[in-house]
Amino acid sequence: MTTEEAVGKRRGLGRDFGFLSAAYSMQTLGEGVLVTALPLVASRLTSDPKLISWVLLAWELPWLLLALPGGLLVDRGNRRLLMIGAQGVQMLLLVLLAVAVSADVTRMWMLYVLAFGIGTGDIIFMGASRALIPDLVPHQDLEAANGRNMTAETLGRNFVGPPLGSALFAFLLPLPFWLNALTYLVSVVLISRIRRRPVRTAPAPERRSLGAELTAGLRWLLRHRVLRIVVLLAAVSNFCVLMGQSVLVLFAKEVLGVGDTGYGVLVAAMAVGGVVGGFSSRRVVLRFGARAVAVAVSLGGALSLLAIGLFGRQPVVVAAIFCVWSTGLALWNVMAQSLSQRLIPEELRGRVNSATRMICFGALPLGAFAGGLVAGSLGLAAAWTVGGAINVAVVLAAIPTLLRWPANAVEEEKAR
User: Which pLDDT tens digits describe the chain residue by residue (416 residues)?
Assistant: First the structure.
């Protein structure tokens, strides 16, 4: 059997999705390497925590500034070519930085430019890849497709990439960036193997103002009775978990009593649930349905944050409790992505997905800011307790709405 046939036969999701999933795996592995390499380089250039924090800020800022126009581009352009272009630009930026690091001429502004470029490329790549999945696999296989990608993301970004980036950084400084550039090159090659999709048969949209086009996805999302509550709960969850995670390194050292090495082990252990959830997500979502998963995951995740604040005083206890949250995150992402892909009109997929991520990701820095204030005033554990309490209150208020959802995927599609 050829490599192409092997990719195509994987779990029966088709040749084209096999290449798309492999490209996504390479992309997430590369970002996992970059997650550790960029801060390490920044720490060699400056000891100013504000300047170092701006690297992450530059990475996240495109989601607030460019998510809506990025979604419009995904809806109006060739999604396959957009993915190739985005990964190509990201690869070029990484090569330029690798050269600068090799020549020992790196400056902080270069890291900011790279981070902003990577974040901007992610808007296009992730938006186009998620909008393309329903064109590559049957609707009944969306949970399997999204579950595979979720597992690949957890493994690459949380397990393999970060320690690999640290090891390469310690061995020879430019290596993480050269490897990251290589992963994007492989991704481009894989995406190029996807067969060209047929020209869309949907009628051409009527001409509207640029503002109306940019906000069409956001307005559609806010009007949809099911998806708007999904996005609200995801944004609240992101806000509340970042309240605790923003001070996790101090919580681990001062409350749990672990050192630098123990902290890395703790972070990896806390992410184990994401792998479990990714592998089991398809069976769980299909067995119980989106409604049951939404209720159980949102309530279980909120309670787990509260439990860490109230009872988490040992590393093993905190890791075990947080695995409830990370397992739920994997299940939620597969459920929400599959649901969105079924419900969003084809011509709006890019813009609605971008609007969704703008709202959900925009809650992350706000939660981190709030967590710092709470921890500074009430103590490190209070950041988890207050975050969990807020999350529980919002979920309890939302449960009546969740229980009015259609019970299964067929009814969900009829509810469009």
Answer: 444 444 444 446 778 888 988 898 898 888 888 877 777 787 778 766 567 667 777 887 787 788 888 888 888 888 889 999 999 999 999 999 999 988 888 898 999 999 899 989 988 998 888 888 888 888 777 777 777 877 777 777 766 777 777 778 777 778 889 998 999 999 999 999 887 554 444 444 555 666 677 678 788 888 888 888 999 999 999 899 988 877 776 787 788 888 655 665 676 777 788 778 877 877 888 888 888 888 999 999 999 999 999 999 999 999 999 999 989 888 888 888 888 878 888 778 778 877 888 888 878 777 877 888 888 888 889 989 999 999 999 999 998 888 887 655 444 444 44
Cβ neighbours of residue 284 closer than 8 Å, sequence gap 6 or more: 293, 331
Whether 215 maps to a domain, the answer reads: yes
Question: What CATH number should be reported for the domain holding residue 181?
Answer: 1.20.1250.20
**Number of folded domains in the chain?**
2
> Per the structure block, which two tokens stand in for 46?
């400056």
- pTM confidence score: 0.69
Whether 188 and 91 have beta carbons less than 8 Å apart is answered as: yes
Same-domain pairing of 139 and 15: yes
Whether 323 is in a domain gets the answer yes
Cβ within 8 Å of residue 97, ≥6 positions away? 106, 110, 111, 114, 177
Neighbours of 311 (CB within 10 A): 12
Does 202 fall in a domain? no
Which helix or strand (DSSP H or E) is residue 346 part of? none
Three-class SS state of 404: coil
Residues 187 and 254 in one domain: no
Query: 220 and 187, same structural domain?
Result: no
